[in-house]
Amino acid sequence: MTTQYTRPNGKTYRPRNPDQRLLIPYGDIAGPGPHGVIVIGTHDPADAHPRAVGFLQWITGEPTARASEPLPGWYRTGYNRSDRAIIPDEIHGRPGIAYTCHIP
Fold it and tell me: How confident is the model at residue 30 (pLDDT cuts 50, 70, 90)?
């Protein structure tokens, strides 16, 4: 069975490799301000959340790091003022869920 997602504009998206997941940090993980991780390749929170928590615990070095505030969307990599960036894009992006990092 092929995994399919429907974009907001009604078109169908079929990933070439449906089992592939990409974890991308955003924000300054070590500094102040909002930061977290985007799990690209799924809109399923049951699949994405454990991956996000494990990644945040690994990258921060804090075993108590949590992933919260899931924000499903369509994301792609690109450039913002000549810096690599994650860009929300409902037309050309891949399905993903963004999580905010919280360290109690």
Answer: low
| Phi then psi dihedrals of residue 90, to 5 deg | -75, -15
Q: HSE-up of 52 (CA within 13 Å, CB side)?
A: 30
pLDDT at 6: 87
Q: Which whole-number Å values give the CA distances from 59 to 1, 56, 81, 96, 103, in the listed order? A: 34, 5, 26, 19, 12
User: Please, which residues bridge with residue 83 across strands?
Assistant: 80
Listing DSSP states for 50-66 in one string gives: HHHHHHHHHHH--TT-E
Domain range spanning residue 14?
5-102
- Split into its structural domains, the chain has a count of 1
Q: Is 49 strand, coil or helix?
A: helix
CA distances to 27, 46, 56, 77, 83 from 43, rounded to whole Å, are 21, 9, 19, 17, 26
Q: Taking the chain, what is the end-to-end CA distance rounded to the nearest angstrom?
A: 41
